[in-house]
Write a structure and sequence with these properties.
The chain is mostly beta strands and 327 residues long. It contains one helix and 24 strands. Strand 14 and strand 15 form a beta hairpin.
Length: 327
């Protein structure tokens, strides 16, 4: 018997409960992929994810059809599975699974900007409200639209590309991610290429975005890179740059509680990009520590200590699970 590191990307042929009833078995490219909840040897939480949400095995097995699709659930969609292939059982024991109905992107001119008639390049866009892959994971029934800085915006404030001669400067391209079926594109993410009017007034509630974070295990060291934007309308024009800090969030294996630890930067760049917005970029390489901080963090969290939310006394923050690469 041997267990060989394995990775697979392919089309989902079937999804069913495992024999014990606690996990799920997915078939792709005639390979049996088995998943059960738990943690890896490096204390990472095993997971099933869509691009916007973490799923339970039951949600992955849900046979409810996504809007516009004929296949049940995620059948016919794409799976990426990482783990170890067990030669004794001929099964890929997956630690991490990513699924979606299709990997499709549309980028171009915004040609209509109302929720019932939203179009890019003339293609009708419908925002997904399915709780397995919603355009707003916090409130699936109410999709959100993101601007170029990663902040929710009012879609009606987006500039529509004019017809006729090309204006100078030309409008910024917008994009959606999701899948196309029938006569429309079903999107879990809409990003407007401009700024627009934010959904929440940044002069009243400061905001910070975390566009991407990565964690790299280099043996005796680890590297973290992260980037995003902050709003500055809550401070007078010309005020000092915002005070951005980055933290790792680890789960204590004994108590199960999440523990936040600030990561010192080797490099933290903050610069103004336009009125009301600053861009921040963070990177560091640090020696690995023992105990709780020796493994891969559950989350990377960023806080703007200059942006205190009125009534809470707490700085505005954002967090995501890092893109991880282990040795």
């Amino acid at each position: 018997m041997a267990k060989i590191e394995s990775s697979l990307e392919g089309t989902i042929e079937s999804i069913a409960a495992d024999a014990a009833g606690s996990g799920v078995v997915v078939t792709a490219m005639n390979v049996s992929i088995h998943f059960t909840t738990g943690t890896t040897a490096s204390r990472r939480t095993k997971s099933i994810k869509t691009p916007v949400k973490t799923l339970t095995p039951a949600q992955l097995m849900n046979t409810k059809k996504f809007p516009g699709r004929n296949d049940v659930g995620f059948v016919g969609g794409t799976i990426i599975a990482d783990g170890n292939f067990d030669t004794a059982t001929n099964t890929l024991e997956a630690d991490f699974i990513k699924v979606e109905p299709a990997e499709t992107v549309l980028l171009g001119a915004l040609t209509a900007n109302s929720p019932g008639n939203l179009r890019i390049n003339g293609c009708l866009i419908e925002m997904l409200t399915d709780d397995r892959m919603p355009a707003n994971p916090i409130d699936p029934a109410n999709p959100i639209f993101m601007n170029q800085f990663g902040f929710p915006m009012k879609i009606a404030s987006a500039a529509v590309s004019p017809t006729g001669p090309t204006p100078n400067p030309p409008p910024a391209p917008s994009s959606v991610e999701g899948y196309f079926m029938g006569d429309r594109f079903y999107a879990y993410l809409f990003e407007y290429g401009g700024t627009g009017q934010l959904l929440i007034d940044p002069a009243v509630v400061p905001q910070i975005s975390l566009g991407r974070a990565s964690y790299r295990d280099r043996g005796n060291n680890f590297e973290v890179q992260a980037r995003g934007f902050v709003t500055t309308s809550h401070v007078p024009a010309g005020s000092p740059l915002q005070d951005v800090r980055v933290f790792r969030v680890d789960r204590n294996p004994t108590t199960g509680q999440l523990v936040e630890t600030e990561i010192p930067p080797d490099k933290l760049e903050i610069d103004r990009v336009e009125a009301g917005f600053e861009r921040w970029r963070f990177q560091t390489r640090q020696p690995k520590q023992n105990g709780l901080l020796s493994g891969v963090p559950e989350l990377i969290r960023v806080k703007n200590l200059s942006g205190i939310v009125t009534g809470t006394g707490l700085p505005v923050s954002a967090q995501i699970e890092p893109d991880v690469r282990e040795p």
